[in-house]
Amino acid sequence: MVWILTDTVTDLLDTVNTSVIHSMEGALGIKNYHYDNTTLYQTFLTQFRQNFNSDYPEEGYTDEPGFYALRAYDSIAIITQAMDRLSRSTSSPKVFLDNILATSVVGLSGEINVTAGEMLRSPMLRIVNVVGRRYTKLDFWIPELGFSNQPLVEKVEAENSTDARRLKGMVIWPGDLQRIPKGWLMPTVKKPMIIGVPGRTSFDMFVNVSTNADGTKKYDGFCIELFLKVRGVLGYDLPYKFVPVNGTYDDLVDLVYNKTYDAIVGDVTILASRSDKVEFTQPYAESGLSIIVPEKPEESELMFMKPFTKGMWLATGVILIYTMFIVWFLEHHTNPEFKGPWKKQMGTAMWFTFSSLYFAHKEKIYSNLTKVALVVWFFVVLILNSSYTASLTSMLTAQRQQPNVNDIEWLKTKRLTVGCDGDSFVRNYMQSVLGFEPENIKNVSHEYKYEEEFESGNISAAFLELPYQKVFISHHCKRYNATTPTNRFGGLGFVFQKGSPIAADVSKAILRLSEDGELRDLEVKWLSASRECPSNATNNDITGSLSLQSFWGIYTITGATSTICFLLFLVQLLKNYNKQEVKGRRNATPVDKSVWEKTFTLARYIHHGETDIPGESPISAPSPDIYNLESSKWELSIPEDTQENLHSSSPAEIQLAANISDSDVG
C-alpha cells in the first residue's frame, strides 16, 4: 500500500506537528513550489520567523512558512497595491476592483494574474517523500512537460527527453519496500482470475485438456492438481477460470505480459528472458536439457575380462604365480608328486595352483606349512570366484547398453537430425546457443511421436527437458537412454503478471506442499515409472569392473602368509644343513672349500634337499613321516629312485632298508 498526498495536505507539512508527519513515513505528495532564493522571500522569511515565534511560542520553532501563508501574503500585497493606485478624488469600489483585476505580479507564491475575478497562477509542483519526521524534495512536475530535476525547463528539451515520464529521485516506500509498489485488485466471484492453460502439450501427464460429452472442458494433469492443492493452502479464496490456449509457451507468457490473462498454470520453464516480462512462482520441478538416444547392446569378445580391471587381473596373476612357487618349494623336497624333472615339477605346480581356483586339485599335500598357506589361499579363491561370478552375471543379465551417439558436438559434426518440442523454447535454444542448423531440427508434437520418429530413422536423438526426460525414460527404459543434463534452467513454475501479490503467496504454498511431502506424492501419482521400468531402471550408471582397491587387503594377507611359511621352511632347511655338515666333518677328512663351492653346495641342498660330504655318500634332507588318513597308518616318504630299486629287491632287503631309514629319522 502507498499513500499519495494531494497539495491540500502537503502544503501543510511545514506547519503540522512532527509526530504527525512521522506516522505518514513513505508517503508521496504533490507540493506547490515557490522560489525561496529571491530577496523578497528571504526578507519575508526573517520577519515571519521572528513574529511567529514571538507571538506563538507554544507552537515551537517553525522553519518555513506554509504555502497558504505565502498566498495570504501575496493576496494582501495585491489589495495594498490596488489601494495605492486610487487617487484621493476617486474612491469608487468599481475603480478599486479594476485595479485589483489589472494586477500581474510575481509574489512569494509565484507568478500571479487576476482575471475575471479569479487569481490565476502558473502552477509548478514539487514531488516530496515523507521520511522520518520531515520530508525530502524529489523532482519537479511541470504541466505539459512532465518530471524534471530543474524548476525551469524548455518545452522542446522536455519533449525530447524520455526521462520526463519517470521519477528520477530515490523514493523511500512504506515499510522500507525495495521495489515499486502497485495497487492490485484481488479476484472476486464476479470477476475471477483468468488463468490460461496450455491447450496442446507434448506430455499429457503434466497438463491435459479434453472435452466432456456436454461440450465443457476438462482440465487434468500434474500441474492442474498441484494448482488446486496450492489454492487449498493459500488461506483465502481465489476465484479463477481456466481458459485453454493453443500456442507456444512464449505466446502464453506474452498473453500474461499484455494482461490478456492474469496467470498461466502449466509446465512453463523459468527463463531469464521471460522473467523480464512476468512474475514466476517458486519452481515446483527442476529443469535441464537432456539428450534421448536409442540404446544398443554392448558387444565384446572380451566380455569375460570386464568383471576385473587390468590392475586386478595383473595382481591376481602375480599372487597366483607366487602361490604356485611357494607350494612347489614347500612340497618338492618330500612330496613325490612334485619330484622328477623340471618340466614335471613345474607342470605339477601349475596344475595344482590353477586347479585350486575351482577346488579341483587332487594332489596330496605333505607339509603342514603348505597347508597353512593353502588355507588362506583357498579363502582368497572363494572370494575371487564369488565376486567374479556376481559381476559377470550382473553385466550379462542387467541392461548393459550404451548410446549410439556421443555428444552434442558429434551430432552437429555428423549433421544428424534431432527432435524436440516445437512449442517450447528448446528449438530456439538449440539454434542460438547450441549451434544446430534449423534444417537439422525436427518438431515432435507428442511424446508418443518420439518413438515413431526413432523407429523410422527420422531423428537420431531427441532433446527434452529434464521432467519430460524422466517421464519418457520411465516408460521406455529398455530401448532408450538419457544423458545427464549439462545445461540447467530455472525449473518449471506458474506465471503471474509483474508485481502480482498472489505470486508470492503461491510460491509460499508450493514450498509448504514440498516440505509436507504432498508435492512428492503428486509426482509419484502422475510421473511414476511403469511396471516394466522400475525407478532404478532409469539410472544410466553401468556396473563397474572390480578394482584392486577392493581386494588388496586379502591379497596382502595371503602373500604375507605364504612368505612366512617360506621363511620358516627355509630356516628349518638351513638348520638341517648345518647339522649334516657338522656330521660330515666328523666322519671325513677336512677339505677346504671355496666360497663358491660352499654357496653351490648350500643351493643344491636347498633345492634338492641333499649335499655331498667328502668321503661320504650324498646325504638327503630327512623326509618327515606321513600319516595316511585313509589307512590311519604312518607311511615313509621314499624317493623315486629308491622305489625303483625296491621293486627288484627281496623282502628281507626291503625290511632292512626300512629299519635303516627309521633309525635315521629318529
TrEMBL record:
Membrane-crossing segments per the record: 312-330, 372-396, 552-574
Gene3D superfamilies membership: 1.10.287.70, Periplasmic binding protein-like II (3.40.190.10)
Record's subcellular location: Membrane
Keywords: Glycoprotein, Ion channel, Ion transport, Ligand-gated ion channel, Membrane, Receptor, Transmembrane, Transmembrane helix, Transport
Domain spans labelled Ionotropic glutamate receptor C-terminal: 194-529
Regions of compositional bias (Polar residues) in chain numbering: 645-666
The UniProt record lists the keyword Lipoprotein: no
Membrane topology: Multi-pass membrane protein
Transmembrane as UniProt keyword: yes
Chief localization: membrane
Name of the featured protein: Ionotropic glutamate receptor C-terminal domain-containing protein
Disordered: annotated segments: 640-666
